[in-house]
Structure formats: C-alpha cells, structure tokens
Amino acid sequence: MHAPVGGLTQAEMNNAVAIIEAGQQMNLPSRAFVVAIATALQESHLQVLANPNVPASLKLPNEGVGTDHDSVGLFQQRPSWGPVAQLMDPHQSARLFYAALVKVNGWEQLAVTVAAQTVQVSAFPDAYAKWQSLSEQIVNAVV
C-alpha cells in the first residue's frame, strides 16, 4: 500500500495506484499514467462514482454518487465505453481509458490536457491542465 500524497485520501491513492498498475500491465510509459490520473482527478477526484441515472452502478462498490448524464466511475465514462461493472472497476476502467489513449496519434508528445481531452471529449477541455503537477507527484511516488 502506498501512502497518500498531495492531500489525497487513502482510497483516492489506492485508485491512483490501480490506474498505474493497469498501465504497467499494458506496458505503457509513465506519461500515460500522468494523463490518466489527471483525467480521473478532474472527472471524479479519483473516486469511483455511481450515478442514479445508471441504477446498476448504485449496486456496485462506489465512493460516492455523481449526476453527470449517465457517467460513472473514476473516468466518468458513459455506457458506450463498456459494461457498467467494468466502468465501476478502477483497473478495468483504466484499461479502457488507456486503450482509447493509445489510439490518439502522437499522444506521447501532446500536452497532458490535450491528450486527456482527445480521449474524454469534455465540455471543459482545459480543466485537466490544473491536475498535471499532482498527477506527476502521484506517479513519482508510486513508480
């Protein structure tokens, strides 16, 4: 278990570690972990969020409830990303995020916020930038 950094709770740190582990299992570079963690910080502050608009999510382990459309989990992924059980699982939702990230041409050279936005298509495309420093701190503490 990794001690929390940057003001995170232990649960949030554990979710960050799960994101990193999923990326390591996919043999991705640490830059991918930074992009993924910045995304999850913006989308859910590293909390697995259920959503009343997705009733099945409320029956799965969660750390709170969000109400953004039908988005669930760490990355606030919508049903088109996969089954609710996958979206609510930190490892599996991270793998889905990484699978989309590596399809982005030249993602390794893109700014963190641009790479994250290309995957997420958020209504707030610049919001990921504010999480880059904390994301790097988390990755450095774990890797």
Automatic annotation (TrEMBL):
<protein>
    <submittedName>
        <fullName>Uncharacterized protein</fullName>
    </submittedName>
</protein>
